[in-house]
Amino acid sequence: MKKAVSIFSSLALMTGVLAGCGPGKEATQTKNNEGEKKAATAENGMPPKPEKLVVWEDVKRGVALEPAIKAFEQKYGIKVEYKEVEMATKQRDQLRLDGPAGTGPDVITVPHDQVGQLVTEGLIREINVDQSVLDTFTESSLKAETYNGKLYGLPKAVETPVFIYNKKLMDKAPATMDELYQFSKDFTKGDKYGFLALWDNFYFAHGIIAGMGGYVFKDNNGTLDRNDIGLNNEGAVKGTEYIQKWYKELFPKGIIGENGGSTMDGLFNEGKVASVMNGPWAFQGMRDAGIDIGVAPMPTLPNGEHVKTFMGVKGWHVSAFSKNPEWATKLIEFLTNEENAKKRFELTREIPPVKSLINDPLIANDEGAKAVAIQSQYAVPMPNIPEMAEVWGPMATALQLVANQKTEPKKALDEAVKTIKTNIETNHPSK
Fold this sequence. Notes:
Elements: H1 2-17, H2 23-41, E1 52-57, H3 62-76, E2 79-84, H4 90-101, E3 107-111, H5 115-120, H6 131-134, H7 139-144, E4 146-147, E5 150-151, E6 154-159, E7 162-166, H8 177-187, H9 202-211, E8 215-220, E9 223-230, H10 234-249, H11 260-269, E10 275-278, H12 283-288, E11 293-296, E12 310-318, H13 325-335, H14 338-348, H15 361-364, H16 367-376, E13 380-381, H17 392-403, H18 409-427
Parallel strand pairs: 1-2, 12-13
Antiparallel strand pairs: 3-12, 4-5, 6-12, 7-10, 7-11, 8-9
Helix pairs in contact: 1-2, 3-14, 9-10, 17-18
């Protein structure tokens, strides 16, 4: 930036000196000066550098952004300001107001399942990056940032459910669900349970249903087909039958419904449960309760397939209102590179979907982070199209009926899919 300012000052001085020259010579000199200024501020085909870029970061995450910003400013001479804004809802809502008003950011961070809605509303723009940048990330994390076959962001962190166990009650994580089932049959007595999971909640149940062959919306090369729903196909029915088996034979009734999560957490933290399916957000509470936890990827299913858990991706996105989209894209490339992704993990424990870091000692020696990184390779990004909003309610109803053994899986799923399709047609009419 100092170099740009120096050149600009020199140009101003030269303009004064040349004021007495003939008009033709002055016009030629001015044109040359403008070309020199443009050449000085552009870089590798990039447009002229802006004085400043603005980033919205999630609350309590700025500490991880600061070293990356400092390095970016030193490398490119562009000042970067950041503001902490709650990620889940407030960034999206505030961009709707600040973007059109010209007071919004160049870069925002949001959960990937909001991407479709943000694109539909014209709030974020497609980005173009080199293949070498794309090769940095896991395939599933990039898929999460893709909508209708176009890339709208770069991933900064992933989370997905994993297998968590009490080392005092279980020596090591089982390799298969069949082994876990046998362990649970032997261990479950009275108020002691071998394994618990919130499979009446579709977020968690999806791993079993998808691992058996079900799917939410058919993925056609990066475009999700809202008209092709696979939640009542043969695989989905088999997965739901498997879920019902656990509820019928081994799970307590108390983990069904709204209070299921707190009940399961309480039992585990009291040392009454040997293992659970839960996410990295639960680690600290378990440790605070004095539980020596072990963490591993989910055991494989009876069909030999991996549990295809839902994956959530937090990403960086370029505002559609940014006046410097190329440099905003350059910034998010920089924020997500290997060095800065590693630093973010050190400071926030957010797990980066950067392939080269999965075996880095920093993550490989962190049992929880390694398990999430490995499980993420088998995970499925939550659908990021607006129609996904119509899936949660009907599937929750179906799964609770199945968990309570009040309805056969096939009937419950057929009814759920019928409701989902009706709601999609009503609330998301085809254009």
